[in-house]
Amino acid sequence: MTSNPPAAQPTGIDPRSPRFGATITAALLLVAVFLALTAPFADTLAVRAGQPAFVLLSVIAALFAWGAFAGIRRHPYGVVFRRLIRPRLGPPVGLEAPEPPTFAQGVGLVVVAIGLVLHLIGVPGSLVVSAGAAFVAAFLNAALGFCLGCRLYVLLLRARVVGRQA
């Protein structure tokens, strides 16, 4: 009698998970934009680093870094989705590769980090611009399922800038 090997687990992630995370991120970024718009310009580095918009964007940057370096599967929003949301939903229509959303997390990190650094060196409006740009990208993903970072990943993959080089 022969036994069949166990069925391989499907690879990929539920595409609803990144959209769930993008929804939370978009909401946090909208708050950051509001905080940045309402904060007066600060003359000293210490005051700029303690402003609520800077602190919130720093937390968002840390979350982007988590997703970019630990991988989208280990991101806190993904864990919440898998444990609390996913069991209440039907199966996904299909799975998607984790690399594009992981790359998108890195793009978000770069955009927000640039704004944080520019703010620290005293460039007025840098938090508003970087948080606003990141908000647009997160909102497009959350509302329409259009991931700008994922599209950028695919373009760079086709140009052989990222991904496996054969």
TrEMBL record:
The keyword Transmembrane helix applies. It comes from the Bacteria. Keywords: Membrane, Transmembrane, Transmembrane helix. InterPro entries: DUF4395 (IPR025508). The chain crosses the membrane at residues 20-41, 53-72, 103-121, 127-154. The keyword Cell membrane does not apply. Residues 13-158 form the DUF4395 domain. This is DUF4395 domain-containing protein.
